[in-house]
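Journal club prep — side note

Before the paper discussion, L.F. wants everyone to see what a predicted structure for a comparable chain looks like in token form. Sequence:
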Amino acid sequence: MELVVATRNQDKLKEIKMFLKGLPIKVISLNSFKDVPEVIEDGKTLQANARKKAIQVSRHLKRLAVADDSGLEIDALGGRPGAYSARFAGKDATYSSNNEKVLRLLKAVPGSKRKACFRCVIAAADKGKVLGIAEGRCRGRIGFEPKGRSGFGYDPIFVPNGHKKTFAEMGIKKKNKISHRSKALVKAKKLIIDFSETCFGSRGLHER
């Protein structure tokens, strides 16, 4: 059984593959296909974007697909960047430029007021029909400078509650135990297994 992850982001794909390891499925991304139309992420919420990507990709490819949209919500910035996290610094934003913008906007904000929450919404769909929505959250704070070389996105500046290191300093294995995406994937994994059992009965997916 194949599962299409509706992304071309290899960093995101790597994390999802690691988490779904153990299920007898082949996890592939949009990079395995040449003719998938680009999905315009114009939703105002993470859920809207995740649903749209999952529906359009699964309908076009006529197969099971999951799509995630993740965002960093910072209290001192009124919840920004939120659904605009990937392009916070502009259309051609990079991980570095997004981090630099956040740190610049928070330059005068003290540590006690740098609270933030990472959110991940994952939508699963088959042939254009949404099977379910899963969400995960990880609360923490924004550091004063980028630290660490692991991970991607805002990982170098996000310190989860109860920890002193950023996601980027922790390394992917430790991050995957507490991250917003891992929490969403726990729920999404169940959606995938339930879908398989509905389609194939006792021959559905079972962890090895």
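L.F.'s comment for the group: The chain has a mean pLDDT of 91. Keep this in mind when we get to the figures.
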